[in-house]
Amino acid sequence: HSGALGGWFDGEWRWMADPSVSGCGGFGDLGTHSLDILLWLFGDVASCTAQVDPGTARYPGCDETGEGLLRFESGTIGTLAAAWDDLADPVSLVVSGTEAYAVILNGQLHFRKEGVSDGKEPLADLPGKPAGLDAFLETVTGAGAPPLVGASEAAYRSAVMEALYTGAREGRWITPRKA
């Protein structure tokens, strides 16, 4: 979102831009939500690193933007971008492989797989919900509503985010600790 551009943290929410109080900056604040989805989709992380930056530097000592690179134990490679310096976030998820891709663009799911869909138009007929991440995941897995994140899963997500920040500080790949 555009929180740093709009000064959202200049007043009563200033603590959000003080990592000594909030625990992280913009990359961690917004990136944790996408990280949760990546971990749910692809499993544990073998190693990761990131680059975080002050962006506009509106909030001294606080990152406003970042990009992470993750190697999953499954062999999947993922990227994670998050910032308080975005005018918009039109692409919230891209999963691309050798046989198909799925993109959530402006809140609409585009899916391409030969013989199924060409990906040009958003999918509109997902069962029970408008096109979106939950409906996509439910459709793909056939599992119904995704389960809530438990305490050990939440701790692992925090460990991976910390590994991303450590990788950024130290300029190297980090193996996240297991919960």
Can you describe what's shown?
The chain is of the alpha+beta class. Helix content is 28%, strand content 25%. It contains four helices and seven strands. The chain has a four-stranded antiparallel sheet, with no helix packed on it. A three-stranded antiparallel sheet has the order 1-2-3. The relative contact order is 0.17. The mean pLDDT is 88.
Features:
single chain; 179 residues; alpha+beta; 4-stranded antiparallel sheet; 3-stranded antiparallel sheet; 7 strands
What level of helicity do the residues show? Answer: 25-40%
Q: Gap between N and C termini, in Å?
A: 30 Å
**Model regions low in confidence, pLDDT < 50 over at least 5 residues:** none
- Strand content is 15-25%
Shape: globular
With strands numbered from the N-terminus, the spatial order across the biggest sheet is 4-5-6-7
Look at the structure and give the mean pLDDT. 88
Multimeric status of the protein: single chain
